Amino acid sequence: LTGSEEDEADPSADKLEIFLADGRRRTGIHLIVRRDGRGSATFGTVASSRKIDPQWNGRWQWAVRSSAEGWTAEVALPIETLRQSGMDLERLQLNAMAQSRRFQPRPAAVQASRLRPAAQGAAAQIETVFLTDPRYGTKFQSCLGFLELVSKPAAQPKRRRFSLRLHFAEMEDIEPGRRVFDVVVQGKKVLDGLDVIRQAGGRFRPLVEEIHNVEATDRMVIDLQPSGGDLPPFVCGVELVEQQ
User: Fold this and answer.
1) CATH 2.60.120.430 residue spans of the chain
2) How far apart are the C-alpha atoms of 17 and 38, rounded to whole Å?
3) Whether this model's pTM surpasses 0.70
4) Which CATH class, in words, describes the domain spanning 160-242?
5) Fewest CB within 10 A of the end CB: N or C in the chain?
6) Phi and psi at residue 238, in whole multiples of 5°?
7) pLDDT digits (tens, 9 = 90+) for 57-69
């Protein structure tokens, strides 16, 4: 959170509030860090009639740094504090609110009003901004505007069966036995000692090998492993058709 030099007159007015709850929204942690360095934390129900647990003493840390450009707040809340508070860590959600006292000086007293707003008669107002969703205005509503901190795992793709067609054609003028290899699909050997030029009957002649009932989910691994000769294995084309 960054404020401005207009807030220098009353540092206690500026604060950052963080609300942590889980998807059930029954209880939550409310953290407050002020620009003057003070911090406080409470734990209680997340509802319009909020009830605070006086026995809660969760561990957390905060730090505030001010400069000519404004101020910055940093908060550290251990996972163990969330766990001991009964939070569902897989459904953790966050909302944050910044409150700042903004001075609106009269045109003739711009510089002085920043230092002594009351003496110059400058009007002051409290500006509240919801960091996660500004549509909800200046009143915090516990069930609105929360962001999920833990992304939901993607649905696992279902296992399906495929027919696999492998297309070969020897392009080089070689003797049989110089290029011999095995074909392994999904970790299982499906072709043993494939010699394309021998089985196709010569150079430039197509050879198609078809393998059925190959199971796969999101990927299929085809491995060509040399098993004879001095030339590396190859494949000209791969065709995959899902079985109904």
Assistant:
1) 160-242
2) 12
3) no
4) mainly beta
5) C
6) -130, 130
7) 889 999 998 888 7
